Amino acid sequence: MSAVASRLRGWRPAWSRRRLVVAGSTRRRLLVAGLVAGLLVGLVGWAVWPEQVGYTSREEVLTVQSGPDGATPVTLDTTFYLPDGASAADPVPSVLLAHGFGGTKESVVADAEELVDQGYAVLAWTARGFGDSGGQIHLNHPDYEVRDAQGLLDWLAEQPEVRTDGPDNPRVGVVGGSYGGALALLLAAADHRVDAIVPSITWHDLAEAFLPEATGGDPTEGVFKQAWAGIFFGAVGEAPAAPAEAGPEQEGSDDPGEPGGAPPLPDEPAPADPIDPGGVEPGVPGGDPLCARFADDLCRAYLEVAVEGRASAEAVARLRESSPAGVVDQITAPTLLIQGGADSLFPLAEADANARAIAAAGTPVQVAWFLGGHDGGAGPAADEQRLRELTGQWLDYYVAGEGEPPGDDFTWSRAAGFTADRGVATTAYRADAYPGLAGTDATEIAVAGPAQPVARPPGGQPAAVSSLPAAGGLASFVAGAVTDLPGQHARFSSEPLPEPVAVAGAPTVPLRVASPTGEAVLFVKLYDVAPDGSATLPGGLVAPVRLTGLPADIADAEPVTVQLPAIARELPAGHTLRLSVATTDQAYTVPAEPAVFEVAAAGPVTVPTVAAEPIPSPAAIWRWVLAGLVATLALGIAAVVVLARRRRRRADRSVTAEDAGVPLVVRGLRKAYADGFVAVSRVDLRVEPEQVVGLLGPNGAGKTTTLRVLLGLTRPTEGEVRVFGHRLAPGAPVLSRVGALVEGPGFLPHLSGLDNLTSYWRATGRPAADARFDEVLAIAGLGDAVHRRVRTYSHGMKQRLAVAQAMLGMPRLLLLDEPTDGLDPPQIAGMRRVLHSYATDGRAVLVSSHLLAEVEQTCTHVVVMHRGEVVASGPVADVVGDSPTTTFEVSDPGAAQAVLAELPGVRTATRNEDGLVADLDGVSRATAVAALVNAGIGVERVVPRRRLEDAFLALVGEDTTGSGDR
Q1: To which CATH superfamily is domain 658-879 assigned?
Q2: Each residue of 239-258: pLDDT tens digit?
Q3: Measured between alpha carbons, how far is residue 682 from residues 273, 669, 685, 705, 718 in Å?
Q4: What does CATH list as the number for 1-434?
Q5: Which residues of 831-854 are buried (b: 16+ CB within 10 A; e: fewer)?
Q6: Which of 181, 414, 715, 751 has the least CB density, counted as fewest CB within 10 Å?
Q7: Pro residues compositional bias: what residue ranges (predicted)?
């Protein structure tokens, strides 16, 4: 089912789903213990989990009387669920279960099964105008859908298995989401037989929901929510065809039965044998294809607003007939209001208005916010569990007459990170009473910026995208990824927050606006901006405003207060607030005429907060149970860890005094594998303070194996490694003094370089101050590029970032494997400067490389390995040694070449960019110089010439190929 269909067809209450996450270990030694723990958990679950109640269900096509006169029949397709054991002698309380817009009774099957399992008789039905029920859609009008539901109450009271409070008075609660939630409110206001209601993600005033105006204006001045309205009218499909002749139900009726129903949405297969559609109501002859199964007056009101972009007083009055706003103060049934923060259709303000009106009438009311909604679905698992508990407690006390009073406290949640299975982790909070959208306290956050001109393009296109109605997770993506269009918005920003601010309610801000036409439609948004510049619009929510009577000059504009959408979000310290005022939004209708306005912030953003305490997730109960079951296992593991740490500390205390000041000492290192392959036969080396030591060798020489042993990644077969005198072993504490880059860098491309470094350091568990970021970044030389996303880095920049990561904490010993791999000459020169800068203040570097010329220029010392052992080590100059090859810088290289070629014992004499290079095999340099001078050639410089490459080839031979390290 598409995202749109799943939202509209029947929002399912969060308590209708359970989730169990089981984690396991693959360690062989824990396998048996894990099986035992699992068995214990299963036994306890069998003992404490509520016994599953069986049930029977039966399909019923019920005819109820409704319409303005209360005497017009309409057929409703229903299913009645009855728990096993319910009887006339032992009746049970009941629940009337309503579906969401576009849905049917099939949309709430899982919810019905959950409720019947809790001991309730459940009557689910398909609302008029949908599925196989008759009639047309009146959007929960009191004369139609509400009277339909009253007829269902009458039917419930007649069932002998349903508990009653008197004749024709069933013991009943009403539960529904969105469309069904409004029905619950309207029914409770109209019929006091209802004992309790749980409406979710629903509306208070349908006119204000679809024509909002955030400065408190009337819906006739509101801004039309065109995207959601189009989804509502498009979700029902085409109107059924008019029948050839009317059936008996239609005679003399102004609301005939219409069992045919709307065609299913594209992803739902059509019924194999649809019922005869019956008839259509007067006013829509033959079924208006523009209106599908909507009632004529409602359809005309929609078409009027959709075309004009504004609502007439008559259209507003019609929408308010289908709204709880006018009757909510008549509700006497205790009400649990559940509303989602990710909801651009019915935001938190709708539940707030319902809550205040119901409480003012003296009726018990409780409010719960969660992180889902029409744009965000059922929300995180922790929210589902919390709402399930609240709903069960509410129905049990007020309908079944069991349990403790639920109270009137207020609960909500905020995102707190991610769970192990990549879900959203939440923290839930509780306050003693619902404080409303203004909270119990407030924080003022100043925003700065000059008055700015903003343009509305012709036709309102292109338009900013702040939300995608009914798009679920994609809507959240848009809220975090899309910004406003250039030239079409003004920005005002705060300073970084000195401390976190926990928002719970609707922020407000005063604005001043000027318009040459005296009128302006604007969209006000509040972004949470992280230090890296990424901005998130919570829930994708905006505050639309339509201002009139505006001056042409901003200096003459009076402040007007805008109430922003209510949110529940923590703004971390270091983040900033960005107030954005835009001229367009894809979800709303704006005037087609182009215009330019001027906007200024007239004061701070006032952010509401709520004094509250965190509450544990219901899952915490299971954590305690499981903790008790695995206590023995945990103690055993703890004992093993303690013993291991003691062994490690004993090993760590074995410090040799003579090596205490030496960054690295390797003695007699050997590594052989089980198959007999010897990767390292014998390695002895020392790295002293302030040395840059190059580790050289052909492929297969054992360099990588040696480095892995030095990092504690591989255990040696023989020998020892000491770092500052401490014996090295896997996990040894002294490894915290070693930084390393082995086998290439790996970073998260969507994060900046600095964020990658910060995340890496945070994972070490060490204090942030110990990282010494400023020093590391100064040495690495990345400059402002460290704030860019890594996906934009060149290979060389990634290498420098990898070296910077190895340098975090400024470890005393740095081990680098091919740090110049893939770099161009300027980048290699830069890396050389980095390593020279680092090897100061007693620090040292061991670098493995195949670039011999670069090692010769970078390193102070060199270690040459061949066939698993060290064949030479020492200062670079000592390893290179003396050479018969000599460079002569002379006044006439051509003449000099001829003179030297005639000397006995000179093997070759060739010219290059430095002058003349001669191989004086058996001829002293003094003899050669004398011959050149006697020939009248000026000799400026004589330099013995031998490269590291020459020495390397002399040590390992011409064949440098191998099988590669293991």
Answers
A1: P-loop containing nucleotide triphosphate hydrolases (3.40.50.300)
A2: 444 333 333 333 333 333 33
A3: 84, 5, 10, 12, 9
A4: 3.40.50.1820
A5: bbebbbebbeeebbbbbbbebbeb
A6: 715
A7: 261-274
